[in-house]
């Protein structure tokens, strides 16, 4: 399994300082989570004398994960207080922050809110595998994470395969076989994710997912993230043409990310069979009032992708700066008529699953 | 609360590469732990369908903590298998690795044994506070850690106090008031430690402690660690005299560590009242066959103390090298007639407590 976590530390290129666009989804989902917990969480799954366990899978660094955990706990707490009436007895909370072992847990730990209403633990490992003992979690949350594949599908790197993805770094505008290889890998990974969670989550426990997606009938190339990946690939090809690296190095590089559709995700959950789908709705892009500059967009992609790019191409800071401060923002600007158009192409699913 | 964890990373001065002397206690305690678990652990505190939870408090980095956790799990596993007969049903294990938030958890996580028989989590925070929800731990382990105080007693830094510790960095050979200030702080810290554990450990759960100590009737100055600290203080005074820093900087520096006696620790556990003392025995120093070179000793102290020294004096690598590669090993050599004599002065307690 490959692991390229977000950029660590607190520096100018860190995820911690380049994840405020993702914050929209944290804020937007707050009321949806309040509702979901009010409607679907049966607090009898955890008597108030026990420990209520929550996990954020693919948490990276703060502050988004801390805000999300706080929101979830407030909603659960409210539910207990209502149920228990004025006695107000609520369980103690244990929050597990999960990401790859190579994630920057040191930064996560020293930035934990000092007055947090929970006990905190970090859990290293891929969420495509088992991370927790059986039947121990009550709520699982994962925001903008399960689009990451466990690895790039092998076929797209195999020069003899019809899915070989020459000259591109993603399936956007590539041959259908490339898309199919990604789609098959996503199906396997989601099955692994759900299979592990089915073991870990108690009956009646909830799984809250925020998932980058494309509209059910739209061609994959129309999604912004793919377009952004495609533009990045085109920058890398330009760099290869100037001799910074070989074109073959771009051919052998693909981004392990996939955007599903609502229908596809539903099918995968149903095929797994362990969860009921309580909600699956679009987070409307129009509601996202953030209008980042192209440089901000580029910085956000850098915080997420620098690790995997550095590891493959061996770029130093100078070349990474050239890519993310010049070539990439310039090409984004040239491609999109306006950033509003770009933002309106975004689609994201808010999903509530309940363990049967 | 102050936090100066062991040196992080995998470099030449890291704790990971300078903790093989501590390994003796891990190996030596293995058979004692096997026995203690066989004799004192009632496996009915955790039905085999539940999760068995173990915490290592003050774990620092591997490999010692990984070996210790493996030993404990093997002993527990054996007990379940014997009890359950051939059906061999054992619980799943959740191991919590705890240390200060500024400990190098990143190194800990990437060096976790790949084939470990447990789910792993890291828990950031001081073991003088609550770290876990109520009644969730079955076995707590802490090796060579509870000698660290939550902070240096204030009086020894107060120029107007009779406990002001001028020209020294520890209570060895200092005024009685200095020793008493340290002793009072240790009593407070152990009470805080036991109070927190009393909440976290289930009834019947075990606490395994490996504790640096001095024989009941010996004066504090006869213990090796204190002598080692005293020698280090003397090196720092020498450095001040050559003008590397002011003597006042040494006056305001004290090491937050204390070696108890068996009797004192017993009294503190009894005063707390939540635990039965099942065993408290000396780990015999004669059995320790390791005969490290003075440089190895100096390197081990560096891995543990560099953080607190750097933070106080602001030394760069060059000055730290001067101290730990020249002055300190030379003075250790000059002080001890032979390292055998040094090693024979070590005393360590192996303690088993059971939650009432």
Describe the structure in your own words.
Two copies of one chain form a homodimer. By secondary structure, chain A is of the alpha/beta class. Chain A has a single domain, classed as 3-Layer(aba) Sandwich (Rossmann fold), CATH 3.40.50. Chain A has helices spanning 23-40, 64-84, 105-110, 176-200, 224-241, 247-251, 262-272, 294-313, 317-335, 339-344, and strands spanning 51-57, 92-99, 119-124, 137-143, 201-214, 260-261, 275-283, 348-355. In chain A, strands 1, 2, 3, 4, 5, 6, 7 and 8 form an eight-stranded mixed beta sheet that branches. In chain A, helix 1 runs parallel beside helix 2, helix 4 (176-200) crosses helix 7 and helix 8 (294-313) packs across helix 9 (317-335). The two termini of chain A are 29 Å apart. Chain A binds chain B through residues 51, 91-94, 96, 101-102, 104-106, 109-110, 112, 119-125, 130-134, 136, and chain B through 51, 91-94, 96, 101-102, 104-106, 109-110, 112, 119-125, 130-134, 136. Chains A, B: It comes from Papaver somniferum (Opium poppy).
Looking at this protein, list some descriptive labels.
Rossmann fold, MeTrfase_capping (chains A, B), metal ion binding (chains A, B), about 15% strand, metal-binding (chains A, B), about 350 residues, globular, 8 strands, methyltransferase activity (chains A, B), eight-stranded mixed β-sheet, S-adenosylmethionine-dependent methyltransferase (chains A, B), homodimer, alpha/beta, 10 helices
């Amino acid at each position: 399994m490959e692991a390229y976590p977000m950029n660590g530390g607190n520096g100018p290129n860190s995820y911690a300082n380049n994840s405020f666009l993702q914050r929209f989804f944290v804020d937007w989902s707050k009321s949806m989570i309040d509702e979901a917990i009010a409607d679907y969480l049966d607090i009898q799954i955890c008597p108030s004398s026990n420990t209520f366990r929550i996990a954020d899978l693919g948490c990276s660094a703060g502050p988004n994960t801390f805000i999300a955990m706080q929101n979830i706990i407030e909603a659960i707490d409210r539910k207990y207080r209502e149920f228990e009436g004025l006695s107000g007895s609520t369980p103690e909370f244990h929050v597990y922050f999960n990401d790859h072992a190579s994630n920057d847990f040191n930064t996560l730990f020293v930035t934990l809110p000092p007055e947090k209403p929970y006990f905190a633990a970090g859990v290293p490992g891929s969420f495509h595998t088992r991370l927790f003992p059986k039947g121990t979690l009550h709520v699982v949350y994962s925001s903008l994470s399960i689009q990451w594949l466990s690895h790039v599908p092998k076929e797209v790197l195999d020069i003899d395969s019809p899915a070989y993805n020459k000259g591109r770094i993603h399936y956007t505008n590539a041959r259908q076989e490339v898309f199919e290889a990604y789609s098959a890998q996503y199906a396997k990974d989601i099955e692994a994710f759900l299979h592990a969670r089915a073991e870990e989550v108690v009956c009646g426990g909830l799984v809250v997912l925020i998932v980058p997606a494309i509209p059910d009938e739209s061609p994959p190339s129309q999604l912004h993230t793919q377009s952004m990946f495609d533009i990045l690939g085109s920058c890398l090809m330009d760099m290869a043409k100037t001799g910074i690296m070989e074109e073959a190095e771009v051919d052998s590089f693909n981004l392990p990310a996939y955007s599903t559709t609502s229908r596809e995700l539903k099918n995968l959950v149903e095929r797994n069979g362990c969860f009921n789908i309580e909600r699956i709705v679009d987070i409307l892009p129009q509601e996202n009032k953030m209008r980042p500059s192209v440089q901000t967009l580029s910085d956000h992609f850098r915080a997420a992708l620098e690790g995997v790019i550095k590891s493959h191409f061996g770029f130093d800071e100078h070349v990474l700066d050239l890519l993310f401060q010049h070539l990439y923002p310039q090409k984004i600007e040239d491609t999109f008529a306006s950033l509003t158009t770009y933002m309106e192409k975004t689609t994201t699913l808010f999903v509530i699953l309940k363990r049967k």
